Amino acid sequence: MRKNIIASLAFLLAGSTAALADASDGKIKIGILNDQSGVYADFGGKSSYEAAKMAVEDFGGKVLDVPVEVVTADHQNKPDIASNIARQWYDTEQVDAIMELTTSSVALAVQAISKEKKKIDIVTGAATTELTGKQCSPYGFHWAYDTHSLAVGTGGALVKQGGDSWFFLTADYAFGYSLEENTANFVKENGGTVVGSVRHPLASTDFSSFLLQAQSSGAKVIGLANAGLDTSNAIKQASEFGIVQGGQRLAALLFTLAEVHGLGLEAAQGLTLTEGFYWNRDDESRAFAKRFFERTGKMPNMIHTGTYSAVLQYLKAVQKAGTDETEAVSKALHEMPVDDVFGRGGTVAANGRMIHDMYLLQVKKPADSKEPWDYFDVLDTIPGKDAYLDPAKSGCDLVK
Amino acid sequence: MTTIFGIPLAALFGQLLIGLINGSFYALLSLGLAVIFGLLRVINFAHGAQYMLGAFVAYLLLQYIGIGYWPALIVAPLIVGAFGALVERFLLSRLYNLDPLYGLLFTFGMALAIEGTFRYFYGASGQPYAPPALLTGGTNLGFMFLPNYRGWVVVVSLIVCIGTWLLIEKTKIGSYLRAATENSTLVQSFGINVPMLLTLTYGLGAALAAFAGVLAAPIYQVSPLMGSNIIIVVFAVVVVGGMGSIMGAIITGYVLGVAEGLTKVFYPEASNIVVFVIMAIVLLLRPAGLFGRDG
């Protein structure tokens, strides 16, 4: 009996792979690769996959008369796992482009593979400016935000309000370094000082010891150069140790609607943050958010909407190029202006950076929130040219 | 200001205290693991999931029935303990005659299933849970600002740890338990219901994990991942303390918490591996663990 089961399973598996190989000809396939079970699972996660599918449906499900398919996988925040999946997708499953790529270490690894295999990658989930700096790729694009725009937005706002001495709590990997460095440079350029920093492992549960060091540093601002659950935990524990009451301010450098929702307005109120999208911005964004909410049960943040925009723009580029050949599609992506619910009046620079406006937001007090998910006041719109690093200074050798 | 290795003394005291607080969670969790392993010979990989369940039950009680923190501290462990007892009676007890590996695999699978279910419904970011009004705020100790809630965690976990140790080492029911692990046939022949005893033990272990979960809820986000983040460290604690040694688990829990706290001052990047480095060293020098009996 058991032998029969195994035999039939083997048969099924063999059958399905054969079918895949046949069907993938004459098809556009987009892979959404991100963290679906770890600290960043709400930041992007499965909802980014839904956003990608929405973009395909809005485009009509077909491009150049062939169907478009979206596949997805969980990279568990591990560059080695992500690299394996990326290679498998490119080599045996005819995936044309990989997108989302939350976690900077993963994004850098997959962008390198994409470059080597001459495939397109569009990063919406990861933050490091390295993607469009020294490690840029002619087929690599960085879509939703980056550490520079966060530094300009959140860092700039706090320095303006007198926060001129900083202590950093930094996630101990590529993204944390990049975010800390960008913000520290920005603070120093504006006459501030950095009094110290401490690096914590990704996915720490207890921040009290790091917070205590930040507290005793006497810095006016404690910059949280981390993301996802790490930031939520740090904020929650900071309030426990009386850090904000003690006169120090917290700067959640990468914090989105999803984390504010998890933390609750009570704990998050007053925080300043920077996002590339806010659902309650205008009628267009609200209409998109409503459709997204119906599918996922939550409102979109900049990662979700950015992924929608990236998929949509990719399909437009394929259509314009008249082929799915990488060089031609990349050329179209570089040339075409971006105009959708996410990237209004956006342009793509030679280093692959999509330059668009960012929003400086402040978390509302619980009493001021009029409806579920009504979390932010828009303090300012930061024009794309101020938010993003001048491509000529990015260190990317594609910029002449 | 007095300094040691360039660290102000006051800051050092603060970190020691923080280490003690984290150690309280390690001690409570490794205690439950040690009880289950010591008496049932089951390596309970579902312990982290039971800890997470404790926090979630407290959260759900508050959310849907309006039961607050204090009753939840009793009710949530009872619910999770009962769930544990059911699992033991109907599933786990069938594996006692097999290789211990089966118990490990079963509990591991159960942990994945429970966590996956909660992640599906609640996402990974977790849910907020406010500390009880009585324990909000903090006390300035001069060298640090101690949140009252954390002080409470240290005190109550010490009481529970010592209470459990007394229950197992010094009471009659504890002696039945210990006898049943030595020779269950003999104990059964004296008219004691051994399977029931084992069910209760597993329930107690699960309840201890859930108790730690409720304690943790106001400090950390109530998140489906909270258990898997801590469980590996707790296993290391049990191994260092000596598998099955109850006092060993308690003491090692606090000691490793403090060691981890100190690492966060001197070399923060290594703070999440220092426990395993200590484990490796202990295993090299004393394979049975610090408090384990050889052989």
Structure description:
The complex is a heterodimer of chains A (400) and B (295). Chain A contains 14 helices and 15 strands. Chain A has 400 residues and is an alpha/beta fold. Chain A has 2 domains: 26-145 and 282-352, 3-Layer(aba) Sandwich (Rossmann fold); 149-275 and 360-385, Rossmann fold (3-Layer(aba) Sandwich), CATH 3.40.50. A 6-stranded mixed beta sheet of chain A has the order 2-3-1-4-5-6, with helices on both faces. In chain A, helix 4 links the parallel strand 4 and strand 5. In chain A, helix 2 runs parallel beside helix 12 (302-321), helix 3 (79-92) packs parallel to helix 4 and helix 5 (147-160) packs parallel to helix 6 (174-189). The radius of gyration of chain A is 21 Å and the shape is globular. The longest helix of chain B has 32 residues, at 9-40. Chain B has a two-stranded antiparallel sheet. Chain B has a two-stranded antiparallel ribbon with strand order 3-4.
